[in-house]
Amino acid sequence: MTVFSAIFLLFLIMDPIGNVPLFLSTLKNVPIERRRKIIVRELLIALLVLLFFMFIGKYILQLLQIAQSSLGIAGGIMLFIIAIKMIFPGRGNLFYHSDNMEPLVVPLAVPLLAGPSAIAAVILMMAQEPSRWLEWMVALVVAWLIAGIILVSSETLGRRLGVRALLAIERLMGILLMLVSVDMILDGVKLTFNI
């Protein structure tokens, strides 16, 4: 995997464009002047969570005796489910949040940005090629920065693009993510059976 493909994969998994409507609806009762501060805070929390799992996740897997092939297959299945939800969005919000409270960690940082599939992806990248840790870290930070710029601009994007354009972009990203997920599952199966 190249650094560019790692950036693209992490960007697709974080799904900032698909998260714009969720961020807007979660923050609708928060004063406008506070929204950007909350988004930046949640982005930083998500980055810290992903960096933690990038460097410590391998040891957690070893402690739990989980094989790398299992992580690849499980990560691929999670991505596949997320891709299906992106392509065929259902009604209602996937994550519950009380409108009376300002969001902290859940649901914006975890699981919307640093969800199970993003955590699985960073652990898998480090487990497969730990010597490239600096490249994986750069890929994560670049993907996170691009996602951050989109989410900080969510108010403007929501107004300018409109709901239909956001849905069309999310569905296109879902198709790409589905292809990546199938590839991850196949890699996990090949690793399991030494093909």
Give the helix/strand class: mainly alpha
Write the element-wise H/E pattern from the N-terminal end onward. Answer: HHHHHHHH
Stretches where pLDDT is under 50 for at least 5 consecutive residues are none
Helix content: over 70%
List keywords for this structure.
79% helix; 195 residues; mainly alpha
What does it look like?
This protein has 195 residues and is mostly helical. It has one domain. 79% of the residues lie in helices and 0% in strands. The chain contains 8 helices and no strands. The protein has helices spanning 3-14, 16-26, 32-64, 68-87, 108-113, 116-128, 133-152, 154-193. The longest helix is centred in the last third of the chain and has 40 residues, at 154-193. The chain is globular. It starts with a helix and ends with a helix. The mean pLDDT is 89.
Short description:
This protein has helices at residues 3-14, 16-26, 32-64, 68-87, 108-113, 116-128, 133-152, 154-193. The protein has 195 residues and is an all-alpha fold.
Helices and strands in order:
Elements: H1 3-14, H2 16-26, H3 32-64, H4 68-87, H5 108-113, H6 116-128, H7 133-152, H8 154-193
